[in-house]
Amino acid sequence: MPLYEHVFLARQDLAQSQVDALAETATNIIESNGGQVVKTETWGLRGLAYRIAKNRKAHYVALDFTAPSNVVAELERQTQINEDIIRYMTVRVDEHEQGPSAMMRRNERSERDRGDRGDRGGRGRDRDDRGDRAPRREEADA
Predict the structure, then answer these.
(1) Closest CA to 58 of 49, 73, 46, 68
(2) DSSP string over 69-112
(3) Mind listing the pLDDT tens digit for each residue in 47-79?
(4) Which of 27, 36, 119, 137 is deepest in the core (most CB within 10 A)?
């Protein structure tokens, strides 16, 4: 059977439980028509590059599955009907990625980096740490 990846974006005002229900609905559509879901990943609430239907953010969900082509047609038909899903894309792939996807690895890395800021409080250098720049006007006059 062919391998597919299906990613959909759900509205930003949905609760996480509602997003999980949308993923479960997609899984049921695939499995009831003879397909098999290999992996489901929720990438979380992320900012969009541009506004889509008055949304600046969206919940991202990815499904890796194997199924006949008629299952993809049914999944996309049901996805178009749902008002909570603002965008979707289904792609046929040669093989599924093993382990977590690149988006999940990116999320883990950014969480690790956010927690490792030390005492700086998330700010870069202090105002007085100007390095080899010219002295401020007050310092030059003194």
Answers:
(1) 46
(2) HHHHHHHHHHHHH-TTEEEEEEEEESSPPSSS-HHHHHHHHHHH
(3) 999 999 899 999 999 999 999 989 999 999 999
(4) 27
